[in-house]
Hints:
It is built from three helices and no strands. The N and C termini lie far apart (52 Å). It has two domains: 1-53; 58-84. The protein is an all-alpha fold. It has helices at 3-13, 17-53, 60-83. The longest helix has 37 residues, at 17-53. It is 86% helix and 0% strand.
Amino acid sequence: MTALESRLMQRLKVLPPERVAEVVDFVEFLASRVQRDAAAQRLSDAMARLDALGLPPLSDDEIEAEIQAARRDRSAAQQANIRN
């Protein structure tokens, strides 16, 4: 255990349970921010790679066709799972 971890443990031991719960909530909040920031970076990187491809944007009709195809595929997969 590092000196910082030891110091934190000592501090936590003297806190009442409701304050320890607040500390846990705050630590989880910080962890979620780190995860969100990492996800945002991955999305930004992916968008840059897509942009670099220079593909023309999809029309509204093409988007709708993709959505309908995905829905048909999902429905077919669900039906196949029901049969099995």
